[in-house]
């Protein structure tokens, strides 16, 4: 009986750990290449019809720019034979992207490659647990979103959207002339704050546009009183893709991180000056669904 109780407790603890991941995880299957969003990570998994041998592995290494002198290890906590590579990439003077590649020999003796990318501190425990969930096909269908964006799961709240909206990336939705936003659910408020700060730093480092103003403003985000960083970028005279697609001259962006419905959320919301802006709320329709300016 003692061993049975221990087994049950261990099973419950493992399930609890997995369920915490599944509470934050969103996935999208795009023709066999699966995208995941959790804790501000960009994650992809893909199955390749290559044997798990030198020839097949070299093809994966080349695809992901993994060099011969990059350190390659095996992670014994991953349930199948694997090679793991950790690399960093300097995006600008302040931001470093951390990449982890889990290259797995799957049940068909072919290769499954899982790539984790993040600009803040990595959570290797989460990476290993999610890798096992992926390669053991244990991610429920309920965690997958549709390519259609008529309804989105926004931190465990279902939001109805216009038929004109579409994904530009997982958890990044654009509604022409109605606004755009990206979001992620994190394991801590500190991680959510770091995510929006890094997005702001990346925006500042780009050569297109200049900052007209930057200030903290009082808002209600998902009915929670908080503060957001409001930045207005000027694209006047620029003909680049970002400005050209909209025809707008200024882009207003709100950066916010807050605890919402027991979730720690990061969210970046934006709109152009020629979007359909409500004269009373000072926001376009998409942003009105999640935020109010006080």
What are the main properties of this structure?
294 residues; eight-stranded antiparallel β-sheet; globular
- What letter string, H or E per element, gives the SSE order? HEEEHEEEEHEEEEEHEEHEEHE
- Reading side by side through the largest sheet, how are the strands ordered? 10-11-12-16-15-14-13-17
Unreliable stretches covering 5 or more consecutive residues: 1-19
Helix/strand class: alpha+beta
- The number of helical runs is 6
Task: Briefly characterize the structure.
24% of the residues lie in helices and 41% in strands. With 294 residues, the protein is α+β, with helices and mostly antiparallel strands. The relative contact order is 0.13.
Annotate the secondary structure layout.
Elements: H1 2-24, E1 26-30, E2 33-38, E3 41-51, H2 54-63, E4 72-73, E5 82-90, E6 96-105, E7 110-118, H3 124-135, E8 151-153, E9 158-160, E10 166-169, E11 172-175, E12 179-186, H4 189-205, E13 210-221, E14 224-234, H5 241-246, E15 250-260, E16 263-272, H6 285-288, E17 291-293
Antiparallel strand pairs: 1-2, 2-3, 3-7, 4-5, 5-6, 6-7, 8-9, 10-11, 11-12, 12-16, 13-14, 13-17, 14-15, 15-16
Describe this structure in words.
- By secondary structure, the protein is an alpha+beta fold.
- It contains six helices and 17 strands.
- The chain has helices at residues 2-24, 54-63, 124-135, 189-205, 241-246, 285-288; strands spanning 26-30, 33-38, 41-51, 72-73, 82-90, 96-105, 110-118, 151-153, 158-160, 166-169, 172-175, 179-186, 210-221, 224-234, 250-260, 263-272, 291-293.
- Strands 10-11-12-16-15-14-13-17 form an eight-stranded antiparallel β-sheet. Strands 1-2-3-7-6-5-4 form a seven-stranded antiparallel β-sheet. Strands 8-9 form a two-stranded antiparallel ribbon.
- The longest helix is centred in the first third of the chain and has 23 residues, at 2-24.
- 32% of the residues are buried.
- Residues 1-19 have low confidence and may be disordered.
């Amino acid at each position: 009986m003692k061993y049975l109780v221990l087994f049950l407790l261990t099973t419950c603890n493992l399930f609890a750990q997995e369920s915490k991941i599944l509470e934050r995880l969103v996935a999208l299957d795009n023709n066999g290449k699966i995208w995941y969003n959790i804790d501000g990570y960009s994650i992809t998994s893909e199955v390749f019809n290559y044997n798990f041998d030198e020839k097949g592995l070299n093809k994966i290494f080349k695809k992901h720019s993994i060099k011969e002198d990059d350190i390659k290890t095996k992670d014994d906590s991953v349930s199948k034979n694997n090679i793991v590579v950790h690399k960093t990439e300097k995006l600008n003077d302040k931001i470093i992207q951390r990449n982890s590649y889990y290259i797995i020999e799957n049940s068909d003796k072919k290769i499954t490659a899982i790539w984790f990318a993040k600009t803040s501190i990595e959570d290797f425990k989460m990476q290993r647990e999610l890798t096992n969930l992926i390669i053991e096909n244990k991610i429920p269908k309920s965690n997958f979103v549709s390519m259609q964006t008529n309804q989105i799961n926004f931190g465990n709240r279902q939001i109805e959207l216009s038929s004109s909206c579409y994904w530009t990336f997982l958890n990044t939705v654009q509604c022409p002339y109605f606004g755009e936003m990206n979001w992620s659910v994190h394991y801590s408020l500190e991680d959510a704050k770091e995510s929006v700060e890094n997005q702001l730093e990346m925006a500042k480092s780009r050569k297109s546009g200049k900052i007209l103003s930057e200030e903290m403003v009082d808002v209600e985000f998902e009915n929670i009183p908080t503060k957001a960083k409001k930045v207005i970028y000027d694209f006047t005279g620029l003909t680049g893709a970002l400005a050209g697609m909209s025809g707008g001259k200024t882009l207003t962006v709100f950066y916010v991180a807050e605890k919402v419905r027991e979730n720690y959320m990061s969210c970046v919301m934006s709109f152009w000056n020629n979007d359909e802006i409500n004269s009373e709320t000072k926001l376009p329709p998409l942003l009105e669904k999640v935020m109010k300016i006080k």
